[in-house]
Amino acid sequence: MASDSVLKPDHTATGRHPIFTDEHEELRASIRQFVEKELAPHAEEWEETTFPDSVFTRMGELGYLGLHYPEEYGGQGGDYATQIVLAEEMSRSHSGGLVMGVAVHTDMANPVLKLLGTEEQKQQYLVPALKGEKIACLGITEPGAGSDVAGIQTTAVKDGDEWVVNGSKLYITNGHRADYIVLVVKTDPDAGYGGFSLLLVDMDAPGVVREKRLEKLGMHASDTALLAFQDVRVPAENLLGEEGKGFYHIMWELQGERLIAAAGAVAAAERLVERTLEFARDRQAFGRSIGKFQGIRWKFAEMATKIEAGKQMTYNTAWRVMQGDYPVREISMAKLYTSRMACEVADECLQIHGGAGYMKEYGIERAWRDLRLNRIGAGTDETLLEVIGRSYGL
Amino acid sequence: MTAGTSTAASGGLDRTAQAGLDHAWGYLFTAEHEELRQTIRRWVDAEVRPHLMAWEDAGWTPASILRRAGELGFLGLAYPTEFGGQGGTAIHEAVLQQELARSGSAGFAAAIGAPMTIATPPILKFGTPEQQERWVPPVLRGERFAALAITEPGTGSDVAGIQTTATKVDGGFVVNGEKCFITGGLRAQQLVVAVKTTAGGGHGGISFLVVERPPIAEGREDDIAYLGGDRGDGITSSLLEKLGWHASDTALMAFQDVFVPEDHLLGELHGGFKLIMANFAWERLSMALGAVAGMDAVLERTEAFVQQREAFGRPIATFQGTRWAIAEMRTKAEACRALTFETLRKHVAGVPALQEVAMTKLLTQRAMVEIADGCLQLHGGAGYMKEYEVERALRDARLGPIGGGTDEIMKDVIGRLMGV
């Protein structure tokens, strides 16, 4: 199945990166058809209303929520590259908020459940999640702790067979619609990094308060919540993974989240360049299409080069992951590079569009606003620079 | 829907795995390639590095080291065994390019690399069996020095503008004109020269001739004055002084009524443009491979430096500004590596990758300059001194965005392939 990307016209078997096979390209074609037919037409409308929960049930029906999940829980049993394909094709929705809302479910909250969940937890949460019947969110950030995960203040205190949770979580994507949350809590205030644990919490449990919907620069199709937990009682068996290992579990989770963010950023940048190329061919100025000016041609060359570099960083890192490697440094690099790259590309595409780029109608300003989050979410540029620098012994 | 089930078991992040891979590019480089890399690296450390500073100062890499590289089989890694090559692939040569660049002297790397990378491939690709037999093996053995002569005082990237003429005479051609920036030109015993064979020249009027020069007199192979003089064939040359690449000989060459026999025509008459285009991909990719290795080398040296250099009572490595500077440069280097290796993979697989090659060249050459500059900055005053070899890295790197097709040409190539 050929890809029609203008950036990489060659998608023959050898032109394709080794992580992809014909099967992946077939999957890509089906996802693309779904996204273009059922998601993209609603992108503008969903900016106003946020995207509906039915997106999850429909994607569950099609098997897209469980690509890289075991078949015994209703997943498709695919390899990690299938998640990359999903991340890439979701960009065709032209809605960063939608992409993020789905990715929180498929690539942030549920991978933790897949890796650490008990059989009961998987039956209770993962099975309906892969069908799209239950929606997940992930609770790390707090009013007082973002990149500094160790600063988390939400507590869980053991009381008989239950944990009692108190605290608040901020910037929680899907927080309003979610049925459960993978929640990072402090279970031992004196144990430092060893004092955190993960809990699976039902969002309709008494004491869970979904406070205001947060208004934001972009990602308008997603819901972003401030959540409060007031004496929420959580059954002891809802501990996810080992008690005291929560910090390490979440550091692991962040790696997958970052790599998928990188794949998404590359794809989003590609979409922008495709649309802008079309614009530059049509748009006339001084008697010719603006694409025929060398200055504009060079802008495209610069953008395509950066995109290609970001893409190959992502693919090679994904290959390593698929070999069982745990390349924290390269994942951090891919996330850092692609986030910035996507922001730069969005800005340049807006510039090439001129006045039209500033208008809502063309969708470029939306992408520009949406992509700005990539440099903050899932680990800020600055956090990643620390991770990378320290990995060289500095 | 069962995409990728064949490798399902290996999927996903396993938090217990710690860099468990033998090679981050295991689908490209094998253990055999890595052994070759170690062999070349040992040779560079033992027989090259100790003399590099002297060669840089002399502006000349001695002939003996070229012969030594030939003796060791390094000059024909990707050439067929029938011509004395090692019968390897472009990946073997890629390893060599990387290790030559790691030496820290692009001039040395060019002296060794140019004959095999740019001056001999046209003969291998377009030569008749007799031409191949005659001109390929001695170069691979390091016994004969070869150069490619395209650029002229009046034409660089715009190769169609070549003015050197070859006039048809009985039994051959007579060549007149000038060539400049010719790597290895002064010592070359065989030159692959682009000439104009029609009055108009241009795309359909350029041809290639192999110009054989008289043998170098014994004991004079490193005698610059002798080599530059007319050796009886109407060719004179002089060394050009330059910003970097000091260890390589870069010549300005004049051809005055130089007779070239008919059977020295390479490829088709008037079909030279094809020859020029045919090797661009590998030349550009070689430069990218060198840059990626050069970045690693200068970054490694810089990381060691910031850890031992103290300021304000502590190693400068412990300042966040230093850590971030290194992280930025390492990330840039990794982007270059990923792009370069993937383009190499395509090249080896025979996938047409004109656009990717141009992207790779553009990204890596510029990044090498930025990284060398960043490393020089972290060295402070020491970086400005010759001793630390960072100033050389920066000077050498500056040719990258010019040689092998300028950044501006690359951007035109990429943009046009995108349809604008």
Features of this protein?
heterodimer, A: 394 residues, Butyryl-CoA Dehydrogenase, subunit A, domain 2, 3 domains, 4-stranded mixed β-sheet, 4-stranded antiparallel β-sheet, globular, B: 420 residues, alpha+beta, Butyryl-Coa Dehydrogenase, subunit A, domain 1, 14 helices, 10 strands
The strand order across the widest sheet of chain B is 1-4-5-8
By CATH, the topology of the largest domain in chain B is Butyryl-CoA Dehydrogenase, subunit A, domain 3
Annotation, overall tally of beta strands of chain B: 10
Overall mean confidence score, pLDDT of chain A: 95
Distance separating the two termini of chain B: 38 Å
CATH architecture descriptor text of the largest domain in chain B: Up-down Bundle
Tally of extended strands of chain A? 10
The number of helical segments of chain B is 14
Main interface: chain pair and counts: A-B, 78 and 70 residues
Shape of chain B: globular
For the record, what CATH class of the largest domain in chain B applies? Mainly Alpha
CATH superfamily of the largest domain in chain A: Butyryl-CoA Dehydrogenase, subunit A, domain 3
The biggest beta sheet of chain A is recorded as: 4 strands, mixed
Biggest sheet features of chain B: 4 strands, mixed
| Count of domains of chain B | 3
Strand content of chain B: 5-15%
Please state the CA-atom Rg of chain A, rounded to the nearest Å.
21 Å
How much helicity do the residues of chain A have?
A: 40-55%
From the alpha carbons, calculate the radius of gyration of chain B and give it in angstroms: 23 Å
Assembly classification: heterodimer
Number of helical regions of chain A:
12
